[in-house]
C-alpha cells in the first residue's frame, strides 16, 4: 500500500512538473512569435492569484519588446486556452536615439574650406 501511495504521489509530481514546463514553453513561444525576448519567467504564487478556478495557471513574466522597452506582465495559460495577458505594464522606457545635429563641426569646416576654395578659384580666374 505504501509503495502504491509513493508511486501515485511521484506520478502526480512528475505530471505537475511536465505541465509547468509546457506552460513556460508556451509563454516563451508566444512572446518570441511577437519578436519579444523573455528576461524572466516564474509561476505566480497563490497569494498573487496563482490559484484559479478555471484550471489556468498564472505566471509573472519580464520581457523586452521589439522597441527595447522592458515590461512586467501577469499571464494566464493552460493547454487548451493558449496564453492571455491579464496585466502588462512598461517598467522601463527606452529613450529614442539622439538626433544627429543638423550641422556638425566637421560640416562647418567643410563649408568654410569650400567657400575659401571658391574664393581662391575666383581670384585666379
What is the terminal-to-terminal distance?
112 Å
Task: Sketch the major β-sheet.
Answer: 4 strands, antiparallel
**Spatial ordering of strands, largest sheet:** 1-2-3-4
Global morphology:
rod-shaped
Primary descriptors:
single chain, 125 residues, alpha+beta, four-stranded antiparallel β-sheet
Give the gist of this structure.
This protein is of the alpha+beta class. It has helices spanning 2-33, 105-124, and strands spanning 37-43, 57-64, 70-78, 82-92.
Please tell me about this protein's structure.
The N and C termini lie far apart (112 Å). The longest helix has 32 residues, at 2-33. This protein has 125 residues and is an alpha+beta fold. The chain is built from two helices and four strands; from the N terminus they run αββββα. It has helices spanning 2-33, 105-124, and strands at residues 37-43, 57-64, 70-78, 82-92. The relative contact order is 0.10. The radius of gyration is 29 Å and the shape is rod-shaped. The model has no long low-confidence stretch (mean pLDDT 82). It has a four-stranded antiparallel β-sheet with strand order 1-2-3-4.
Amino acid at each position: 500500500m505504501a509503495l502504491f501511495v509513493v508511486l501515485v504521489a511521484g506520478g502526480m509530481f512528475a505530471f505537475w512538473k511536465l505541465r509547468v514546463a509546457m506552460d513556460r514553453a508556451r509563454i516563451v513561444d508566444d512572446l518570441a512569435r511577437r519578436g519579444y525576448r523573455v528576461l524572466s519567467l516564474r509561476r505566480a504564487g497563490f497569494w498573487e492569484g496563482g490559484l484559479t478556478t478555471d484550471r489556468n495557471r498564472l505566471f509573472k513574466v519580464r520581457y523586452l519588446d521589439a522597441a527595447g522597452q522592458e515590461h512586467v506582465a501577469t499571464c494566464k495559460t493552460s493547454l487548451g486556452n493558449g496564453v492571455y495577458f491579464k496585466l502588462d505594464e512598461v517598467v522601463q522606457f527606452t529613450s529614442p536615439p539622439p538626433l544627429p545635429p543638423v550641422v556638425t563641426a566637421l560640416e562647418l569646416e567643410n563649408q568654410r574650406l569650400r567657400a575659401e576654395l571658391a574664393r581662391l578659384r575666383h581670384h585666379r580666374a
